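Sequence, please.
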């Protein structure tokens, strides 16, 4: 059983930065960060696959960076130029086996919440204007 635990959430001003960390007990090849606002579905923020290719949601491209340190068992999300709309609960997630989907003639990592098998408890991020 894989256990995931997020940390690093909190409050920040718009334009500021936060760094989220996710500790995992077993190395997983394909992992992601999701965000959820009450009353809405979880949306992928960033993901990383077996080839360390990175995927980003349109709203965070150029501002957020996903990375991981397998030696430390950590997945990170560096969030810069934060906006009030980045407010939400952030979840770390992992796939038991990487899910590949044929999109536009190319295989890409599945990024739907249903593609992920393991979830952390979430950490709250609140950005004020």
């Amino acid at each position: 059983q894989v256990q995931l635990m997020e940390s690093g959430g909190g409050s920040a001003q718009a334009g500021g930065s936060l760094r989220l960390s996710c500790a995992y007990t077993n190395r997983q090849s394909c992992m992601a960060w999701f965000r959820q606002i009450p009353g809405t579905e979880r949306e992928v923020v960033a993901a990383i696959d077996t080839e360390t290719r990175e995927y980003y949601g349109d709203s965070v491209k150029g501002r957020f960076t996903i990375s991981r340190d397998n030696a430390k068992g950590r997945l990170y999300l560096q969030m810069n130029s934060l906006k009030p709309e980045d407010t939400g609960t952030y979840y770390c997630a992992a796939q038991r086996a990487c899910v590949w989907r044929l999109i536009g003639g190319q295989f890409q990592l599945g990024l739907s919440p249903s593609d992920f098998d393991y979830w952390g408890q979430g950490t709250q991020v609140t950005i004020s204007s």
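The two ends are 40 Å apart (CA to CA).
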